[in-house]
């Protein structure tokens, strides 16, 4: 009599096996070193954005009819980047201690940051800026957002690949 072994359920809610995996970061750096690099970039970037948003909320000078929307968008971005800063610390701890379960939460917040940067926040801020600055400056902001998005996607792929490498080795111990 053949017994059917039940498939192991994926520990995480999403099956990410179809996402491409990298072998190295930038073609010559190990995934571990690349994950450290993107962890530090993520942490410093999120902390800088938190500081920038907090200062902008405090010192915001626009027409009264736009202040609620602008401060609301900045408050959402501030909250998201505070959470992302915390998960960046977890990412770095996970990389240094070879614990992929600590890295997982950064992968989730990085996707949220990508969606916010690519679709929601730049469009709100660009709409607000078009009332006060020339189109040339809006174009620069769009280009910067595009570069940040490319960095986010590549960084996510590096960390995801290292996370998968660690989980395949069975080092997922808290």
TrEMBL record:
<dbReference type="InterPro" id="IPR031720">
    <property type="entry name" value="DUF4728"/>
</dbReference>
<protein>
    <submittedName>
        <fullName>Uncharacterized protein</fullName>
    </submittedName>
</protein>
<keyword id="KW-0812">Transmembrane</keyword>
<keyword id="KW-1133">Transmembrane helix</keyword>
<dbReference type="Pfam" id="PF15860">
    <property type="entry name" value="DUF4728"/>
</dbReference>
<feature type="transmembrane region" description="Helical">
    <location>
        <begin position="66"/>
        <end position="93"/>
    </location>
</feature>
<keyword id="KW-0472">Membrane</keyword>
<feature type="transmembrane region" description="Helical">
    <location>
        <begin position="139"/>
        <end position="159"/>
    </location>
</feature>
<feature type="transmembrane region" description="Helical">
    <location>
        <begin position="37"/>
        <end position="60"/>
    </location>
</feature>
<feature type="transmembrane region" description="Helical">
    <location>
        <begin position="105"/>
        <end position="133"/>
    </location>
</feature>
